[in-house]
Amino acid sequence: MRFEIRTLATSRFGAALVLALLTALADAARAGEPPADPGEGKVLYQRYCVSCHGERGDGNGEAAPFISPRPRDYRQGIFKSRSTPSGSLPVPSDVEKTIENGLYGTRMPSWYALGHRARRDLIAYVQTFSARWQTEEPKTPIVIPDEPPPSPQSIERGREIYQQTGCADCHGDRGAGDGPSAKAGLQDTWGNPVVPANLTAGHGKFGDSSADLYRVLMTGVDGTPMPAFTDVLTAEQTWDLVHYIRSLRRAAEPWTTRLEAASAHAASVATMLVSQY
Ligand code: HEC
Ligand code: HEC
């Protein structure tokens, strides 16, 4: 009997059991988090966000006139980066991803150093600027299926889909963001000029992984002319497009842009740490 107990504790099954227990405990700790505190969020907002997003959350902070794209006006409850379908509010983890990573290529910095708790409180305060958060629930996030392996054939199919679906009209024949519509001038919901993404830029505003690209294509960029292609493209076609876009990015000296992004991130973390003391 004693022998049996020892084998259980030292076996792989025993280790898996301990691991499962620990994971369950960690989940319980997250689930049992105290509710986010908009009051704390307000204090943080006035310290870190107000200069761009404004006292009233209207995107009209002191620095805003000098910034393009403009800081978000929160009053309409419209968010660009979501895992939820076009037109829906984002889920809190979508907003947290934006605040944690920043939006590459814009003045929205990474607030990684603030930590999860502070970001949750900030989100709760941001939610007070639009009544949508009281009257609506975010829709269920889209499902991102497993990525098929990239291949030259998939990239070629992606190139054709890109031409056939009208992407070039905005993003240009080679993805440089210089299609005819871009040249004519596009506007966002807030009446400001908006430029189609340069898909050869090596980095994306909404993340660099294949899943991030898949998500943008399926949920669109709300508040801008970038549509969601849920009803137009199948999952296979969307992955082909993702592989094509990644091939455009690879051509754009990824190692230099990556270094640039890494040092920008390090600099913003350093600024945060310094400003806290
Ligand atoms: C230096 C200016 C600046 C500061 C400071 C700043 N932001 Fe932003 N923020 C921006 C800009 C610019 C955008 C819009 C980028 C775009 O539309 O592509 C933005 C967008 C956002 C969005 C909208 C994301 C979406 O999906 O549409 C959120 C949420 C956000 N910021 C949160 C914050 C929070 C919270 C803080 C403070 C901790 C903060 N920002 C501080 C400039 C700033
Ligand atoms: C009517 C114009 C228009 C069309 C058509 C269009 N886009 Fe866009 N797209 C935009 C704009 C504008 C943005 C930038 C939104 C922003 O960041 O504010 C964008 C952003 C994107 C992004 C996000 C890049 C990043 O930085 O993460 C991807 C990827 C993208 N488009 C791919 C496509 C593909 C592929 C197609 C065709 C299936 C397409 N777009 C069709 C206007 C368009």
List keywords for this structure.
two-stranded antiparallel ribbon, 1% strand, binds heme C, 2 strands, Cytochrome Bc1 Complex, Chain D, domain 2, 277 residues, 13 helices, mainly alpha
Verbal overview:
The protein has a two-stranded antiparallel ribbon. The chain is 51% helix and 1% strand. The protein has helices at residues 2-10, 12-31, 38-48, 50-53, 92-101, 116-126, 132-135, 152-164, 167-171, 180-184, 210-219, 235-250, 254-275; strands spanning 186-187, 193-194. It binds heme C (2 copies).
Write the layout of secondary structure elements.
Elements: H1 2-10, H2 12-31, H3 38-48, H4 50-53, H5 92-101, H6 116-126, H7 132-135, H8 152-164, H9 167-171, H10 180-184, E1 186-187, E2 193-194, H11 210-219, H12 235-250, H13 254-275
Antiparallel strand pairs: 1-2
Helix pairs in contact: 1-2, 3-6, 5-6, 8-12, 11-12
The site of one heme C (HEC) has 27 residues, from α9, α11 and α12.
